[in-house]
Amino acid sequence: MNTNIPPSTPPRVMLIDDDRDVHQSIAVLLRRAGLDFAGATSPDEAYSLLELEPAEVILLDLNFTRGQSQGEEGFAALARLLDDDPAATVVVITGHSGVRIAVAAMRAGAFDFVMKPWRNDELLERIHAAIAHRQRRREIAALVQSQPATPDTPALLGSSAAMEQVRQLVRRVAPTTSDVLVTGPAGSGRSLIARTIHSGSPRANRAMVVIEATAAADPTDDLARAELARAKSGTVLLRHVDRLDTAGQTRLIARLEADMRVIATAQSAQALSPALRARAGTIEVAVPPLAAREDDALLLARHFLRRAARQHGRPFEGLSPETEALLKITPWPDEVRGLEQAIERAVVLGDGGLIGPADLGLKPERSDEQTPAAQPVMLNLQQSERGLIEAALKRNGFNISHAAEELGLSRAALYRRMAKHGL
Ligand SMILES: Nc1ncnc2c1ncn2[C@@H]1O[C@H](COP(=O)(O)OP(=O)(O)OP(=O)(O)O)[C@@H](O)[C@H]1O
Prior knowledge:
Elements: E1 12-16, H1 20-32, E2 36-40, H2 43-52, E3 57-61, H3 72-84, E4 90-94, H4 99-107, E5 112-115, H5 120-144, H6 161-173, E6 180-183, H7 190-199, E7 209-212, H8 213-216, H9 222-230, E8 235-239, H10 246-255, E9 261-266, H11 274-280, E10 283-286, H12 296-311, E11 318-319, H13 321-327, H14 335-349, E12 354-355, H15 381-395, H16 400-407, H17 411-420
Parallel strand pairs: 1-2, 1-3, 3-4, 4-5, 6-9, 6-10, 7-8, 8-9, 11-12
The protein binds adenosine-5'-triphosphate (ATP).
């Protein structure tokens, strides 16, 4: 989750409420008070927006479904907001008779509450108190923390039951020092989950060392050896341990220190030797493919669209209804990464209007066909490789070492491929 707030900008307050009239009146109030307003009409939209830009204070309405007054959805959102950012400063909005609910929300980690209908001066007072609290916390954290904090880990988005289970497991294992094996298809978010586990761990104030397992096991790779040594008494992310044969896996085990926390990624635990499974596979976190995540593909597509539009300074209208329908049923080669790249391509190459199926390489649904309704047009190997390299370079701010590490290549191999593709 992105928690870095530039110090000089006006404090940002996010409202999560399904009522557009409430948005309008609070937006006016906050802007007059010199604050920056951001609005989300659902918790899912809020997680995505907060990932792109953090807020000093979050105003959270507790009831989203008409007729509900017990605040279950609001409490679930409160838990998730604090889970994504334990320093989140949340002020809950409750109905006028909701004292019991307000108390429960504060016990659950809310900073404060306001009751409907509120007086504007009282609401502003609460917001300013929350902003001051958040800033004090940040100052104290800076004083206490002598080491630079771990870089922000992007939030793990998705609201399907399958991802909720993953999130629960991550929450449980993160604060321990257990070794973890993260399994799932390539591009499904295994590394992101590894980073999330690390950032929730007692060792989070030390950087996690990320190494391709093939390099870590290579006796001639002195750089990888030195990197691995840095992870002593810390945490190492060993990517793609299943790319090693049994001998390689044995060499790898020999290099792992007893007090290193190992988080490894693989397609499945099957390819691991019993010895490596014993060392690195104490707990398995299985990442489901997008196809098993209900409507998460759509939620992620909207998020990637917002992010790409912001990153590349492109206006965006959104996804066309046809695209949205197809996104729910389309299998993506390379999973979340494939979807992320397709959206970024569409934003960069598009004209800023609605994104149609063709912009994502999707074939419109044809009712007369027996074959699955939509298949992304597979790019040829050359294009895919170029796309992967370009995206890795961008993601890593054109840092060759980091991009090479992410791609599982040596720096030299990455340079060769960049030259081949004219990058
Ligand atoms: N649930 C998610 N929410 C937001 N972003 C996600 C999610 N899952 C994956 N991503 C993004 O998708 C991209 C691919 O994820 P990641 O690199 O973690 O996959 P991976 O399984 O480790 O892939 P590989 O091992 O093949 O490189 C990353 O940019 C990551 O931030």
